[in-house]
Design brief:
The protein is an alpha/beta fold. It is built from 5 helices and 5 strands. The chain has one domain (4-127): 3-Layer(aba) Sandwich (Rossmann fold). The protein has helices at 12-21, 36-46, 62-72, 87-95, 108-127; strands at 4-8, 29-33, 50-53, 77-82, 100-103. The chain has a 5-stranded parallel beta sheet, sandwiched between helices. The longest helix is centred in the last third of the chain and has 20 residues, at 108-127. The model has no long low-confidence stretch (mean pLDDT 95).
Length: 128
């Protein structure tokens, strides 16, 4: 079951837009990180069930942050949110272990669908 969600994005506007698109009726606890390094540190302490990860950020980008988080927990569910939907970028993040990728700005429907898929993955993990 998804309880904690972390949004990692350097843009306060992007974080707010994503936050408002996450279903309110599920009781999710939502946390925010301002760059990849902040995201890794908060991941260690918060242990979120799902992470929304931007790719282009200062200090540490989403590629490196995804790679580091997957080293900490290979089962981490990372949903990449980016405007960079070039095939090479998509292939790279999927190779790093991203769960899925949503084009920015992500629509509420695609966010809900991605969370539903993540929920299914978590259910399988707890049963197995």
């Amino acid at each position: 079951m998804i309880n904690k969600i972390m949004i990692v994005d350097d843009s306060p506007v992007a974080r707010r837009m994503l936050k408002t698109s996450i279903p309110k009726n599920k009781g999710y606890e939502i946390f925010e990180a301002v760059n990849g390094q902040d995201g890794i540190e908060k991941f260690k302490s918060l242990k979120p069930d799902v992470i929304f990860m931007d790719l282009t950020m200062p200090i540490l980008d989403g590629y490196k942050a995804t790679e580091e988080i997957k080293k900490i927990d290979n089962n981490a569910i990372i949903i990449v949110t980016t405007a960079d939907v070039q095939p090479k970028s998509i292939a790279t993040v999927m190779e790093l272990g991203a769960f899925t990728l949503l084009k920015k700005p992500a629509k509420a429907k695609s966010i809900t669908e991605a969370l539903d898929k993540a929920e299914q993955k978590l259910k399988k993990k707890t049963k197995g």
